[in-house]
Amino acid sequence: MPEARCPRLSQAMLLLPLLRAELGNAxxxxxxxxGVEVDxxxxxxxxxxxxxxxxxxxxxxxxxxxxxxxxxxxxxxNVYCMSAPSALRVATISGRALLxxxxxxxxxxxxxxIRYADWxxxxxxxxxxxxxxxxxxxxxxxxxxxxxxxxxxxxxxFARTRLRGCDPAIEFCGIPEEAxxxxxxxxxxxxxxxxxxxxxxxxxxHWTAATIEIxxxxxxxxxxxGGEAWACAGETVIxxxxxxxxxxxxxxxxxxxxxx
Length: 260
Prior knowledge:
By secondary structure, this protein is an alpha+beta fold. It has helices at 9-27, 87-91, 100-104, 119-133, 147-162, 178-181, 243-259, and strands at residues 31-33, 37-45, 48-55, 61-67, 73-79, 92-93, 96-97, 110-115, 139-144, 169-170, 183-186, 192-198, 202-208, 213-219, 231-238. It has one domain.
């Protein structure tokens, strides 16, 4: 993965908690059907660094919330072919035989990026899209389970303190349980290493540079990726609320705070 596309360790340890905080705050205004779960995978993809939103239900639309090269809030929407085409289905159109590149186009991904003015608006757009994708009823409140991700934040911060004096780039491939495979670290002056979650329940940081070599371990406070989903439909049923009524409730709460 090209280093220029990867965030610095300092950027990762600041941006990832910010994105989860905005998503968590926005989740209170939305709902999901029973059984829908959402995981977050750190990823660097085509110039965008952030979280891929991964639901546990089949869908042909996948979302990524992240920052572009200018640190602008972006929601990326990847739309995959609705179904794998059969030979008969795409052999001809109106009697005309299709060329191979036209058949291959069925497998193409449509990618759309939308830039937002702030992270709050971008996070709301993610939940709005998920609510549309999973529109079944009844609806349930969204519960957030952030312990594993918060533990990873601490691991990044710990690694950053041990690598004082350099701020290496860190690669995120966006695969499940990536911590157990290891995150590659690359320095601007040739230093290199990795950050790995070992099976025995500890983090290992290895770093080699011209003047220093680090090989250090410390206990992992969470399993990181081995627990429950980051967000899921809770046990409280949500009655449908018109957006105008929701805004009215927000205004009432603001008025009460002003009177205090």
